[in-house]
Task: structure prediction
Amino acid sequence: MQSALESALLQLAGAVDVLGLDDGLHQLLATPRRSLQVAVPLRRDDGSLEVLQGYRVQHNLSRGPAKGGIRFHPHTDLDEVRALAMWMTWKCALIGIPYGGAKGGVAVDPHALSRNELERVTRRYASEIIPIIGPERDIPAPDVGTDEQTMAWIMDTYSMHSGYTVTGVVTGKPVSIGGSQGRAGATSRGVMYSCFSALREAGVDHREVTIAVQGFGKVGGLAAQYLHDAGCKVVAVSDVGGGIYDPGGLDPAALLKHLRSGADTVVGYPGTDAISNAQLIELDVDVLVPAALEGVIHEGNAGSVKARFVVEGANGPTTPDGDKVLEDMGVVVVPDILANSGGVAVSYFEWVQDLQAYFWSEDEVNDRLKVLMASAYADVSALAAAKGLSLRTAAQVIGVGRVAEAHRTRGLYP
Ligand code: NAD
Result:
């Protein structure tokens, strides 16, 4: 199976081909600007010491400060972070916000740590990457295994080193310390908007579709809820423990409440059948929303996907080989850099509000998000139709093209 980095590089090569960029520029765009690997020593609650590996990769800075999430996951490594950082670069360019791309991570299972251990890991990792982050340099945000609290600890650590409060150093913070209204649900709301754009283009009424969502975390959980609230029938969801299926339709809000009250997985939720994550991908539904990790739709299972629409909440859930199979089958894939761009869009709004110390209402945030996403979808769809490209290639061509243009305009130093 193609790794995340192989996938990202192949997608870039596809866009470079369409754009007719020269080899030198291709090489520049394929190479991260900065890759930082740090040791993160952790004192466990029992007094023992463990040394974890942490990463921060700034893929490209040609259009503005770097932007991208921080992942806490046991399998995170430098290559994965490089791929995720590259996708952030194209995503920010595609939706027209003035950022480059970055990503960070610590190879750790956050669920195996106590809250105090998690705070120590976060603060030590933050202090190790302080030399390269900052509101004008690189602005982290939550990703898999991190959340608002993680961002609060990073913001506090950075502020303590600076000697004053720097709210704009991270986004996805709690509203009480400079976070934005609407940020928590922004990625999921964007997934819904882009899903509806694809359905509308195909003449499908969203109130008549069935949906399966893989990954019931920050993105998948609220995406399922918003889609359900808008009239879609969400029949299956899953998390790392497995999935659940109810052909009559699930109630995602009730399921989220169930998890908030202490359950650690969706599996076993009353009135549902257990399914595996592999079965969920192949379920007979209209829309599949992969919202967990990379590479879950690949050459080996893409042929068994029955959904007519795949809306990528996750980054890199479909490998290029899987993509080819889906394209041949006529499946509409709304690509990650478009479908999940609502998160970084509202992160940008949060940063703008922090820098101006002037905050917007939730309606203002949601309205601006809707406009931004509709415009990005329209750009991608128009280019795809004009040049006979898939939505993925069209999105990559727009994103990569804008970054290439920034390089050409700025010139090469020295
Ligand atoms: P999260 O940690 O909140 O949730 C991840 C979910 O995936 C959890 O339900 C977890 O149990 C599940 N999961 C983990 N491993 C799995 C596996 N092997 N099989 C099935 N499910 C598994 O993370 P998140 O922030 O919701 O991120 C999910 C995806 O969305 C990632 O690809 C991330 O990069 C992408 N994304 C997140 C944001 C954001 O704002 N958080 C924005 C854009 C894209």
Summary: The pocket of nicotinamide-adenine-dinucleotide is lined by residues 142-145, 187, 214-220, 238-240, 277, 291-293, 313-315, 340, 343 (CB under 6 Å).
